[in-house]
Amino acid sequence: MLERGSDDTANAETIKPFGKAFHLGQAPFYVLSSWSHFLINAVSRCFACVYRSLTLISVIQLTALAIGTEHLKSHECTLAHIASMMVPLFICVQNVMTVIALAIAVGLKYAIIGTRKAGHYNWDESSYCQRWQVYLSATVIIRKAYFGNGILDHLNGTH
Questions:
Q1: Maximum C-alpha span of the chain
Q2: Whole-model pTM?
Q3: Residue 104, domain extent
């Protein structure tokens, strides 16, 4: 049946490096609290929502500017006319906003993580893992775009 355990096994440490750093505070660097991670995530998601909304708001404003408010109010302005202006503008503005989002993500990567060096990074020995989690939260702008698929998913080749 079951073997009797040894005293060594019973007294062995079972906490992982993440637990040492995050729960016990045994890390040589400052460990962000759960609330800090929550705030970073919440602010990043709010920023991403506002940023994605800017595309459509910009297209609507640019279309109104291009057509003119007087022409928009007249009966001569049709849905087809408005759509023929909005669709190309949307494609252009969306591409510009995507490039800006990628530039923001690259800038955040260098600001938060810096240049990566090859090696093994435990939670209780290096702040790299924590900085990586902060980076993942901060770059939700590129990871959750386009119906839950990230921007980078659309830049892949064939699988």
A1: 89
A2: 0.77
A3: 28-153
